[in-house]
Every structure is written in C-alpha cells, then in structure tokens.
Please model this.
Amino acid sequence: MVDIFGLYNYWIVIFLAMAGMYIVIARGNLIKKLVGLNIFQASVFVLYISFGKVTGGTAPILVKGVDTYSNPLPHVLILTAIVVGVATTALGLALVVRIRQEYGTIEEDDIHSQDESM
Amino acid sequence: MREYLILRVITKLLFPFILLFGLYVQFHGDFGPGGGFQAGVIFAASFILYSMVFGVQAAQRVLPDGILRGAIAGGLLLYALVGVVDLMLGVNYLDYSPMLTNPKDGQHLGIFLVELGVGITVASVMMTMFFTFATWREE
Amino acid sequence: MAEAVDIIILALMTVTVIGIVVIRNLLAVVMLSGIYSLLAASIFVAMDAVDVAFTEAAVGAGISTVLFIATLALTTRIEKKPAHKPLLPLFVCIVTGAVLIYSSLDMARYGDPNSPANRHVATYYLENTKKDTGIPNVVTAVLASYRGYDTLGEVTVIFTAGIGVILLLGSWRRGLKTPNPHPEDEA
Model:
C-alpha cells in the first residue's frame, strides 16, 4: 500500500480544495462563494508549504548550531499569495455590496432572473 | 458600546501595546519572523479594534481620510524611490549594495526602507478598506 | 508526536470545511472561515513556516473576517435554500478529486530532503544569504533583496485593491448628487 503518512497531507489538501470548489460552483449566495474561494486558496497554500518542509529541519532563520533548514522559497511565494488573496476578497466584497444596492439581492438565481426579465 | 465597560477599558489599555508590537514586528523582520506585511496588518488591526468599540468618527479624528490616502500612495512611492536612488548610483534597479560604504550595511538600509514602505501602504489600505465599509450608506 | 499534531489539525480543518458547506447562516459560516484560517496558521507553524503563519493569522483570521462581517452588516445574513439538488457540481468535484489523488501518487513524500523542490535554488539561497546580505531571516532577505522586484508588484496589487474599494464604495460618491450630475454617471 502507498505510504499513507507521506501522502496524507496531499489528500487532505485535495479534499479541502474540492470542497472549496464545490461551494463556489454549487451555492448561489455570493458571499458564500467568496468564502469558498478563500477556502480553496488556503488549501493551496498548505500544499505549497508541505512541499517545502524538510524532516528534521527548522524554520529558515539562520542561527548557530543548526544546519538543516526548511526550504524558504515556498514561504516567499505564499506570503505574496496570501496578501494578493485578501486584496481580491476585499474587492469582491465591495462588488457584492454594490450588487446588493442595484439588484436588492445577492442570490445568483434572482440576479439572473432580474437580468433576463429586463 | 456605551454599556460594555469591560470592552472599553480593555481596548484603551491594549491599544498602545498592540501598536508597540506592530512596530517591533516591523523593525525586527530581519532577525525573526516578521516584516512589512505582518506589521502593517497588526497596526491596522489596532485601529480597527479601537473604531469598533469607540466609533469610526473617533478613529477618523486621529487619521482623517486625506492622510490615509496620502499614506497609501506614499508607501509605494517610497519603495519605488529606493530603486530609483540605486539607479542614480549607477547599479541595477533595487540593488541595495552601493547605498552605504559597506555593502552589507547598504543591504540593511535598503531592506529597512523597503519594508517601511510596504508596512505603511499595507496598514493604510487595510484601515481605508475597513473605514469605507463601515461608513457606507445606501443612498 | 509532530506527526500527530499534523494529522489532528488537518482533520479539524476537514470538519470545519464540511460545516461551512452545510450551514446556511452566513454569520456562522464567516466565523467558521476565521477558524479555518487560524487552523491553517497552526499547520504552517507545524511545517516550520513561521513568517507565513504570522501573515495568515493576521490577514486570514483578522482582516478577512472583519471585512466579511462588515459586508454581512450591509447585506443579508441567511443564505437562500437551494432550489434543486446540485448533482452535477458534486460529480465534477468528485471526478476532479479522484484525478488529483491519482496524480499525487507520484509526488515526493512529505518532508523528503531530496525532492526536486528542495535541492537546486533553495540551497543556493540558504548558503549565500549570510555572505551577501548579512540578514539571518532568509525569507525576508529573499523577499526584499533577492526578489525585491516581485515585492514591488505585490505592494502595487495592494495599492490597486485599496483604490478599487475607494472607487466602488467611497464617500466621494455622495458628492455626485449635485445639480450637474457627472456625465459618466448613469444613475
């Protein structure tokens, strides 16, 4: 059987990503879709940081007496990605507030039916 | 929030310590975890906490909209200008080594200024976004 | 012991996400997403990513939750009951998940020091940071010095998001209800 613990991280991340994707495509409420997008993003971050972990290593801050460090490059990439993620979430939420002002609802079905009946 | 005495007292007590911690994280990003982004968000979180307990007008008396919008652009401008200074010293854009006589000191100064710019922009953007959401009124 | 912490935190994240999918009260959903971000920050600490954990806790469990609650205060709080059972999205997600699990069987095992990700450029940075910059925190050195240009782009993204929110929701719009309306405003 495959090495369960070596792959457990990746399988959990795949489950979290698919749950986030399910929320985005199956639920109609715009705020819940944004929450699902956040879940998807966070699960991808966990995946990237799992790639960088080295067994027996420590945080990549150079100190005397330690010679195995975890890989610092995924940390740099994910720092940028987290901040970009919150930027897009904030813009999405501002758009939701304006949509609610124009259409009176934030459910996707009601917005489509209002658009088609115009 | 007038009747939540514990919240008001604790917020007033904690507010300077959160700001101090934010400054610590900003300037010790070289030697431990930290840096511009974390410090900016902690700084903004302290003001958001204050405005949630005491009202947005109280927080906007300290940091009016004009100053925040100037700081959003100012942080980014500081970052870009560090690179331009390097161009004027004759090396590549954002190559901090020739800024002081010792290349390692130049790196320290360059990273200090750059992280300061990042921290200022992130803190101002987070505070502006919260104040904008909190003072929005349907017309 | 360290593996037990990983397993438990990831299992808690799974339970939280199942709760988010099922619950229809949006305030509870937003609170659970804050808990999810905090659990993600804990697992980052368990994986030696301290800078990332700091940022995820501050940004995900802090600012994101506050903005979601501010939006909830300006819109509705309960999600509408779905009209029909979403079988096609469920099927798509299950098929995609199965394909991804099949592809994960070839990946390097968790914690492997000889995986391709941990060998080429990372060792260069770990060896030369002390010599080039004299800064102990390798992540800050890479972010601000070796790859400073990318960080400039990231700060520009934050700047653009702030400008976008101001344009969409800012108080400058209230000045538009004047005797001479702005020609591009179609209100």
DSSP finds seven helices and no strands in chain C. Chain C touches chain A through 90 residues (CB under 8 Å). Chain C has a mean pLDDT of 86. The two ends of chain C are 62 Å apart (CA to CA).
